[in-house]
Write a structure and sequence with these properties.
- The protein is mostly helical.
- It has 32 helices and no strands.
- Helix 28 packs across helix 31.
- The radius of gyration is 28 Å and the shape is elongated.
- 39% of the residues are buried.
Length: 470
């Protein structure tokens, strides 16, 4: 068996001071050995010598050992790794080479996802402390892996107690002092934990870290506001998170900051994030209730479409698409009357004249606004969306034809999605199909789209999924 070669090479590695040839041979053999065969020999795998070689100041040797350990550790049960390689894991978390840290954190991740092994980690305070300090790593992959492991630990009551009722909480707060970037990483972890359940949120709020985040969000530093709003938006993605923010008056505070944005020359830094916050609320709660309670949100979105800043226009267009993705949201927009018709004309203008990226965002918004599931295609709603389509330009079909002939596959796919939505509406299917049939260039543009395979997946699930562009 090839596994026997692996064992023999491991023994050779353990007795040599400079086993480079043996390490290369071992790496080569491991590429051919099935994982199932390695698992059968897991009890005989002695990895201590490999871990000790990681301590040598030799880049190629370290790279080889990491590659070999990645494969061999997969053959071992997480419980075995947790119980028998504690010291090695702990050393790995403080190793100067990031690939060693990532290897170690991947094993910590395996352990915390195993209900039988996680206790071994929870009882190892020193190892957990090192995981916490990995959040401060310069390598983002190291920090992300540490956050993921700590978040997974918090899924149990025992894990919450270890994180928030031991010295680890002090370690978290110390890590936050490293710099702004690391502080936001800890906030990301706290919000991820808070989002699991009301109980998890309670642990996080008791720690004082959520309060600290919200204090920064509503503080005077505009750059801090811009960063914190993304994290708070994640907290608002759960029902209990939104309840907490509402009870603490945070949503009202965000609304008031938007009100005062007109007199703030630096509002462009944080305003897009604040508008996105409310846009996301309309997805998760009643669009009508959100817009009625916070009218400044809708007002600001309309204002942003008048901006000369493409960033502001893009966020406004995305938000209109999100708000108009539901029937209730469509009705909210319809109530604004001629003002919304003028906004549609601006979207049509941007779809024709803006940058390619903004054109695509405009077409995505148009798709969301026009889409109606078959069961919601009432005469009133179809007439409403038909009037919206007509408001985009003097000849909206010609507008789409012009876009669909441009040499950008993603743009053509976005236009094709709008055409497909029109053809699926019973009021429009006949007239649109007729226009297509009498305009050969238009039909050809839809059938002969170069790179059309790129949008097959999005068209297969035609219902527009409202999201914000990054």
């Amino acid at each position: 068996m090839m596994a026997a070669q692996v064992l023999a090479l491991l023994r050779e590695v353990s007795r040599l001071e400079a086993p480079m040839e043996e390490l290369r041979a071992l790496q080569s053999v491991l590429q051919s050995v099935p994982l199932s065969e390695l698992r059968e020999q897991a009890a005989e795998l002695r990895l201590g010598p490999l871990f000790s070689l990681l301590n040598e100041n030799h880049r190629e040797q370290t790279t080889l050992c990491v590659s070999i350990l990645e494969r061999l550790l997969q053959a071992m049960e997480p419980v075995h790794v947790a119980r028998n390689l504690k010291v090695d894991l702990q050393r790995g978390l403080t190793h100067p080479n990031d690939s060693v840290k990532i290897l170690t954190l991947s094993q910590v991740g395996r352990i915390v996802e195993n209900s039988d092994a996680v206790t071994e980690i929870l009882n190892n305070g020193e190892l957990l402390k090192q995981v916490v300090y990995c959040i401060a790593g310069e390598n983002l992959s190291v920090a992300k892996a540490a956050i993921k492991s700590l978040s997974r630990i918090s899924l149990t009551q025992a894990g919450l107690e270890v994180l928030f009722e031991s010295n680890l909480l002090d370690d978290l707060k110390n890590v936050m002092k490293t710099n702004d970037i690391v502080r936001y990483r800890v906030y990301e972890l706290i919000v991820e934990i808070s989002s699991v359940s009301p109980e998890s949120l309670n642990y996080c709020t008791t720690s004082g870290l959520v309060t600290q985040l919200l204090r920064e969000l509503t503080g005077e530093d505009v750059l801090v506001r811009a960063t914190c709003i993304e994290t708070v938006t994640s907290l608002a993605s759960t029902h209990h998170g939104r309840q907490y923010l509402a009870q603490e008056g945070v949503i009202d505070q965000i609304s008031n900051i938007i009100v005062g944005a007109d007199s703030d020359p630096f509002s462009s830094f944080y305003l897009p994030g604040f508008v996105k916050f409310f846009g996301n609320l309309t997805i998760m709660d009643s669009p009508q209730q959100i817009c009625e309670r916070y009218p400044v949100f809708v007002e600001k979105v309309f204002e942003m479409t008048e901006s000369q800043d493409p960033t502001m226009i893009g966020v406004a267009v995305d938000t209109i698409g999100i708000l108009g993705s539901s029937v209730e949201g469509k009705q909210v927009l319809q109530k604004t009357g001629t003002r919304f018709e003028r906004l549609l004309m601006k979207i049509g203008y941007q779809a024709k004249n803006a940058s390619t990226e903004l054109k695509i965002r405009c077409l995505d918004a148009i798709s969301s606004l026009l889409y109606l599931p078959p069961e919601q295609q009432t005469d009133d709603l179809l007439r409403m969306t038909e009037s919206w389509f007509s408001s985009l330009s003097r000849d909206p079909l010609e507008l789409l034809r012009g876009i669909s002939t441009q040499p950008f596959p993603e743009l053509r796919c976005a236009a094709l999605k709008v055409f497909t939505i029109l053809l699926k509406c019973r009021f429009w299917a006949g007239p649109v199909a007729y226009r297509l049939s009498v305009r050969p260039p238009l039909l050809a543009a839809q059938v002969q789209i170069s790179g059309a395979h790129r949008c097959t997946a999005s068209l297969a699930m035609l219902r527009p999924r409202p999201t914000y562009s990054n």
